[in-house]
Every structure is written in C-alpha cells, then in structure tokens.
Write a structure and sequence with these properties.
Layout (H helix, E strand, L loop, with lengths): L6 E4 L3 H10 L6 E4 L13 E2 L15 E3 L1 E6 L2 E6 L5 E3 L2 H10 L4 E3 L4 E4 L3 E4 L3 E3 L2 E4 L6 H5 L8 E9 L7 E3 L9 E6 L5 E8 L5 H18 L7 E8 L6 E2 L5 E3 L1 H4 L10 H15 L4 H23 L4 H10 L4 H16 L1
Parallel strand pairs: 1-2, 1-12, 2-8, 5-14, 12-19
Antiparallel strand pairs: 3-7, 4-7, 5-6, 9-10, 10-11, 13-16, 13-17, 14-15, 15-16, 18-19
Helix pairs in contact: 1-2, 1-6, 6-7
Bound molecules: flavin-adenine dinucleotide.
C-alpha cells in the first residue's frame, strides 16, 4: 500500500473533492482520507446557486429548481417568485459523486484521521506522509485542531426534524423572538426529504439541547401542526470563524470550506465556499497565482458577510430586517429585498 503522498486531503466533502479535482492531472500523488464509508452523508440541504458549478448544471440529473422563496416573519409568510431559478437542490450524494468522478486521487473511505504531525497523518488503518496537507474536514476539523486555531467567533447551530416527503417549498423565516441570530427554515434534505427547523448563531455547545431544540419543537408544532414525537431530528454545527487559509512552518498546511470557517454566517450557505476554496488551494499548490487571488477574494467576501451578520443582529437592525421581510414585494422593500437576495445568490 502506498503511504507517501504529495498532498493529503482530510475529508471527502465538497471542499476536499473540489481540491482533488483541481489537482487532477498535475502529476502530484493525492490521497483523500474520509471517515465515512461513502459519499454524501453530511446533514445538509444540498442546495447550490448558479455560481457553484458555472456551466456544469447540466451534469446533474433529477435536480429540483427553486424559483419561489417563501419569506416568513412574526407577521406571517409571503411567497416571492422570480422568472429564473435561484437555487437547485442537487443532493449531497449526487454533488459529491460528480466531483469525485473528476478526480484522479486515491480515496480511502472509512479511514478517520486520528493524529496529525508535521510529517504524517495517522488514521485507523495506518500512517501516510505528506508534503502538503489540506484540512477539508468540516466544522469539527482535526486539521484545524492540529493548527491550534480556536473556533468561537461565529458558530451556527442548526436543528431540525426530517419529514419523509419531497420539499414543497423553500422557506426562510426571520423570527428574532424565537431564533435570535438565526432563522427558521423549510428546505429539502437532499432529494426526496424535507428538513423543518431552526438555526441559531452563538458559541455555546450546550445550545442545541438546552435552547434551540425546545424552540424548534414548539415552532414546528405551532406553524406546521406536525407531531414531532414521530419525526427523526438532527442537529449540526457550522463554522464561520475564518482565521486564514495557509499555515504551518513551511506554509504547507491549508484549510478549506467549513474547516477554514468560510461558511456564510448570514445564510449558512457553505457548499459554494467549500468548492471554491478547494479550487483556490489546489491552484496555489500547483503554483498558479490564480489560487491566491481566489482565496483573497473569499476572505474579503467572508469579512463582508460577518459584518452584515453582526450588524443584522443588533437592535434596531434586527427589526429593520423584519420590517423589510414583512413585505418583500412592496415598492421600496421589494427593491431592497431583490437586490440583497440576488447578491447572495450570485456572489
Ligand atoms: C442543516 C444544514 C443545511 C445546509 N444546507 C446547505 C445548503 O443547502 N447549501 C449550502 O451551500 N450549504 C448548506 N449547508 C452548509 C454546508 O453543509 C457546508 O458548508 C458544506 O458541507 C461544507 O463543505 P466542506 O467540504 O467544507 O465540509 P463537509 O461537507 O462537512 O465535509 C467534511 C468531510 O470531512 C469528513 N471528516 C470529518 N472529520 C474527519 C476525520 N477526522 N477524518 C476523515 N474525514 C473526516 C466528513 O465525514 C465529511 O465528509 C447546510 C448546513 C447545515 C447544517
């Protein structure tokens, strides 16, 4: 078994697979270490906007297009329909399979990374040496831990119930009295299932069980009349605490996607940022100056998102956002809503 690699990527999610995809054909020996036994297991809606795979959407079959967003506030809901789709539910398995089919890396499933040193990575099955190490292992990143980077500025928690029916709507609700610094949602859970729940942003690991779960339970019962006792529930953390992308004594350790904290704290959209940062790091490793440009742009975009997140969660902005979303089709409010909405979808 080969144990020495040029590049070891920890994590076979969108970030890791995209990095491997852009290293394909470089002649570098690349290994992806994935703890799960297969692709696509991440709790996620699997929805992507057009910027994620420009010109490649035709590669996905059975996708669901979203042209209507149902906007909710404490005053009720308003559907807003556009003439073109703003999101596509691709499904996590389908998305990751597409990326993997474009990679020439070795992929080892069921191999959780247990220990990392400056020379090697140890998994449940053995040790591998590397020249470059890429942490693409999500919000609970082992590589980030190895780099001793804290994760507490913005950490979002999501908790929802899973309904075994395809999603009939894409609903996002700004409900500051129920989900402070977060939102309520109805979204597809990949294809064929629906997630109904809430997200909240605060650096407290007890939050799901103590605060978020009871609130979601109450909201799901009151708003949708669902008997939550009969439904499966899931909780997940998202890391938006970005602290750089290039580390190590030899600048040979990189972080991408959620491991880097590149999740958008406002929308919790993270697939695009994982895919794009994976591309940026791969190009940098290949010696292409475009890699650094991509990563600088990502850092700037993230800073703007964090600023918006922080401002949006201060009073009175809290209620200004609520006022806009109460009537997202109004004369002035509609214009503001459309502008911000498409900024998020396109960038
Ligand atoms: C409820 C919910 C819904 C979401 N919906 C959307 C959405 O619709 N659209 C969107 O853009 N974003 C969405 N997100 C965010 C999105 O899921 C993430 O931002 C995205 O998956 C990040 O990709 P990644 O490759 O960085 O990390 P991940 O997708 O988390 O992949 C990390 C991979 O690393 C593996 N791994 C972890 N630890 C180890 C280890 N020690 N050894 C080996 N492998 C390891 C994991 O098994 C996993 O496969 C959602 C998040 C949540 C919580």
């Amino acid at each position: 078994m080969q144990t020495d690699y040029d590049v070891i990527i920890v994590g076979g999610g969108p970030g890791g697979l995209s990095c491997a995809r852009h290293l394909s054909g470089s002649g570098l020996r690349v290994l992806i270490l994935e703890k799960n036994d297969r692709l696509g297991k991440k709790i996620c809606s699997g929805e992507v906007s057009s910027k994620t795979f420009p010109g490649e959407m035709a590669n996905f079959q059975n996708i669901q297009e979203w042209k209507t967003v149902v906007v909710g506030t404490h005053k009720g809901t308003v559907p807003v329909t556009y003439g073109k789709p703003f999101l596509w539910t691709v499904g996590r398995y389908e998305l990751e399979s597409f990326l993997k089919s474009r990679c020439d890396a070795d992929v080892h499933f069921s191999e959780p990374v247990i220990e990392i040193t400056e020379e090697k990575v140890t998994t449940s099955e053995g040790s591998y040496t590397y020249k470059y190490l890429v942490g693409a292992d999500g919000s609970f990143s082992k590589v980030r831990e190895f780099l001793r980077l804290p994760t507490h500025h913005i950490v979002g928690w999501a908790y929802h119930y899973v309904v075994d029916l395809p999603a009939h709507e894409f609903r996002v609700c700004w409900l500051p009295k129920i989900f402070p610094r977060g939102y309520g949602y109805v979204m597809s859970k990949s294809l064929g299932k629906t997630m109904i729940g809430g997200a909240i942003g605060k650096p407290d690991s007890d939050l799901i069980s103590k605060k978020l779960a009871p609130k979601v339970k109450e909201w799901v019962k009151a708003e949708f009349g669902l008997d939550t006792a009969k439904l499966k529930s899931e909780g997940m953390r998202g890391n938006a605490d970005y602290r750089g992308w290039k580390f190590g004594n030899k600048w040979n350790v990189f972080l991408v996607g959620d491991a880097a904290g590149l999740l958008n704290p406002v929308t919790t959209e993270g697939i695009y940022y994982a895919v794009k940062s994976g591309e940026g790091v791969a190009k940098h490793i290949r010696g292409d100056a475009e890699g650094k440009k991509i990563m600088s742009k990502m850092a700037n975009t993230h800073r703007a998102q964090v600023l918006l997140f922080d401002i949006a969660n201060t009073w009175p902005f809290y209620w200004i956002v609520h006022w806009i979303l109460e009537n997202p089709k109004g004369m002035i409010r509609g214009k503001i809503f459309d502008w911000v909405f498409w900024k998020f979808m396109d960038r």
